[in-house]
Specification:
The chain has about 250 residues and is α/β, with parallel strands linked by helices. It has 8 helices and 7 strands.
């Protein structure tokens, strides 16, 4: 059944991925339409298939969003490429825009054309530190002008076991400086088990993806305030992930 589920998912993904690859060079507007379809229709359908055939649940803790400000910046731990569609689903009432490495904007089915057409922040891996900061500054101003919601993974990369890595501060400081937005801290868990097709086939059964808002901070004004938010956020996220992993497999609370 695991292999069948993967085959079914791949058969759904390929047409949309090919359509966006073909369309993007000729029409950014049409690529945006296809990307919206992928986010709003295809992604929820794929999660439904995973739940139906493999009992894999997506648990977004909706009650944790009740006191969110109108506009905000999200920081979170990072485990998988699936973090992006998971947050798009959890914050479906917003227009999420992600900071990502530019290799994700090339040759990754479904993801690459979406990141480029919707103008997410794709930073070249070999960019000099000041160039990377400039990318983030322009991104911060752009999301505010367009009333979009920026997402940053301060770890900068994913860990193999889903443990929470070091949070880096330079990009976070620049993004908060340019956007002036309050900071929403979120935790997620489950994606580290689904890092590739092999892991999806073996680890999907009775698994889950969890996403939750943990805390809201006012927009930081100083370097020290930024550092405090990152330090506290890492502790909060680590505690939440550890708490989730004490639960029996497939149990929400």
């Amino acid at each position: 059944m695991g292999v069948l589920t993967v085959i079914l998912i791949v058969c759904m993904v390929i047409p949309a991925a090919l359509a966006n690859i073909i369309v993007y060079p000729f029409s950014k507007k049409l690529s945006i339409i296809i990307s919206d379809y992928i986010i709003k229709v295809l992604a929820p359908t794929l999660f439904s298939i995973m739940k139906t055939y493999r009992h894999f649940n997506f648990w977004g803790y909706e009650e944790s969003k009740k006191d969110l400000p109108e506009n905000f910046l999200v920081i979170s731990n990072h485990q998988s490429l699936l973090d992006i569609p998971c947050y798009m689903r959890f914050f479906k009432e917003k227009e999420p825009r992600f900071v990502a490495k530019d290799q994700l904007a090339r040759h990754v089915p479904l993801v690459s054309e979406m990141l480029r057409s919707q103008e997410h922040c794709c930073i070249p891996r070999k960019a000099k530190p000041m160039d990377a900061i400039n990318y983030l500054g322009a991104f911060g101003r752009r999301v505010v002008e367009r009333n979009q919601t920026p997402f940053l993974f301060p770890e900068g990369t994913r860990t193999k076991d889903g443990s929470v890595g070091k949070f880096y501060s330079a990009g976070f400081r620049k993004l908060t400086e340019e956007s002036g937005l309050p900071v929403v801290v979120c935790a997620l868990d489950g994606g580290w088990k689904l890092r590739d097709i092999k892991k999806i086939a073996s680890n999907m059964k009775v698994g889950c993806y969890r996403v939750k808002v943990l805390k809201v901070y006012d927009s930081p004004k100083t370097k020290d305030e930024c550092n405090t938010i990152l330090e506290e956020s890492k502790i909060l996220i680590t505690q939440q992930v550890e708490e989730w992993r004490k639960l029996p497999s497939g149990q929400k609370y």
